Amino acid sequence: MRLFKPEVEAQRFWNPYTQTMPRAELDGLHLRKLQTLIQYAYHRSPMYRGLLDRHKVRPEQIRTMDDFVKRLPFIDKKDVLEAQATSPPFGDAQAIPEDFFLQRFATSGSTGVPLHIPLTYYSSVLWGESWLYILWGIGLRPRHSFYFPFHWGIFAAFWSAYMGVRRLGGTVVSGGGLDSKARIQQILQYRPDAIFGTPTYMLYLGEVAREMGVDLRKTSVSYVLVAGEPGGSIPSTRQAMEETWGAKAYELYGIAELGPTNPGCPMQGGVHLCEEWYHALVVDEAGNPVPYGEVGEHIVTSYIQHGQPLIKYRSHDLVRWTDEPCGCGTSWLYYPGGVLGRTDHMIIIKGVNVYPSAVEALLHKVAGLSEHYELHVGREAANDFVTVKVEARPETPAERYGALKGEAEGVLKSMIGVTIGVEVQAPGTLPRYELKAKRFFDHRPPEHRWQLAARTGG
Amino acid sequence: MTREETLERLRELQRQVRALREETDIPAIERTMQLLDMYCHMARWELGDLEAMIPEAEAT
Questions:
Q1: Which of A294, A319, A343 is the last residue of a domain?
Q2: Closest residue of B to A100, CA-based?
Q3: Pair A204, A411: CB distance under 8 Å
Q4: Among residues A177, A204, A287, B31, which is most buried (max CB within 10 A)?
Q5: Does any domain span residue A185?
Q6: Residue A360 lies in domain
Q7: Do B53 and A306 touch (CB under 8 A)?
Q8: How far is CA A332 from CA A22, A24, A133, A317, A359, in A?
Q9: Which of A343, A367, A391 is the last residue of a domain?
């Protein structure tokens, strides 16, 4: 007995109909989906009715993609928080009766008040579906088992991946409620084929395993599936994970409020926009779409947040988009390198934009440095300055730290073109994280924290 | 099977599911029909056949 017919199991794409659809046809389909969504949101979400009314836009006026781009306003997290505050937890952002809600999530609120995220049963199925394009694309099938070293809390985190494995029909092995050592014992016991986690935690499990005398390369894990922070599309970080686990590493980029927006490309160099369930624009400081090949802020529309629709939502993530084929065969838009940084983490040194992901990628080129680092940004005279604190690898003798510092500073200077200070520290001196690592520390005065210009109008 | 043939069978299936959902008085059957309706809607959407965001919005 098997879940899929052999000829179906051999299919390369989960849904070849949309994954290989020509661009013009795909854009036409997007327009119809957007029009359906805008009608839905306007008539069901007081937040959207108010927003469109304030901008004097009626849903039926969105007749072309140009109308969508130019007439419809952006929305930001603070707008949703304000709408939720009218009657917590969901307030005016809610579009459907709570009878339909399956689960509630919230953001950490590290920048203020937590954002509440309602998920209907249907949305949960579609969050899971959004993982299938990468899971299926890299050859994972119902016969495979998936390990979740995850605490199943209020943060969306890897819940969507769990929904994806359920949708696939794979086997879930839960590492909830356990510490890292117990999880490694479970991996040895249950022999999962794949593991989910942040890049930081996947590398940390490698450290713990080494302390336990366990070689993760000899375990059953053949696939490392990462999300939650950049890394899977940064070659050196991906290589470190692959060497630690003796497995292939793949990425999915998601946004808690929206879900799994961008499944990784099976070719591993970046992520695709999940054009089945999401639409995106990449825009400059003025809010105008940048040409393909350029970097800008990722503006995302979800077709699947039925409980709390989000249209032209500002992610504050910086990506480079392209319609050039990546080689995997899909026509879905491609973001080489995945997420490049945050609009609120922009560093400008002597006129040069410095992306944290570029610093991370270059640090890994220096043999003797580990993947554990922090980026501290300050302000002096008229310029930002950056200091990188990075741990040496355990096998690196302390007397080499000075030479490593010089080598790392040289690599950063030659590749980025500006001076970035490096402090090499002993192993274990920087904190470890299970979910998102905090790597960016901004010590600049608020008026010098660069952001893409605020925009709310169409 | 062509896309159009697949869609025609999905729409017919959904009509039957909705009829049974309306007529049953057994909670377990009504819930199952709700979910089948949802999956029919999802399959149609995946083939580009859009009517409404959610099945409940199609019905009202």
A1: A343
A2: B56
A3: no
A4: A287
A5: yes
A6: 346-446
A7: yes
A8: 9, 11, 11, 19, 28
A9: A343
